Amino acid sequence: MFGKLYNLYWRIRNTRNRSIKRRYYRYVAVEKKRLIESGVDPEELRLLCRALSGRLNLHAERRLAAYRKNQLKGQISS
């Protein structure tokens, strides 16, 4: 489901040309809009994009993991 975002953010991180980066950020915006319209949790999507934008940002990855863990715990108890 998020495979296209992983690919787009990889291209953003590994591209030096600013115009190409802007193009891929536009692709990301379209993909995020499509995912939200299809019913994906907007907060999880926001945290995922934050974690993907800078792979060295360990805090963002921890927050995403904690959010997913809490969501899973909430689904089990329901």
Provide the fold topology.
Blueprint: H1 3-13, H2 18-37, H3 42-53, H4 58-77
Helix pairs in contact: 1-2, 3-4
How many strand segments?
0
Task: Name the structural class.
Answer: mainly alpha
List segments where confidence is low: pLDDT < 50 over at least 5 consecutive residues.
none
Strand content: under 5%
Q: Give the SSE order as H and E letters.
A: HHHH
Shape: flat
Rounded to an integer, what's the Rg over CA atoms?
14 Å
Let me know the largest β-sheet.
none
- How many domains? The number is 1
Give the N-terminus to C-terminus distance in angstroms.
24 Å
**Count of helical segments?**
4
Helix content: over 70%
Mean pLDDT: 93
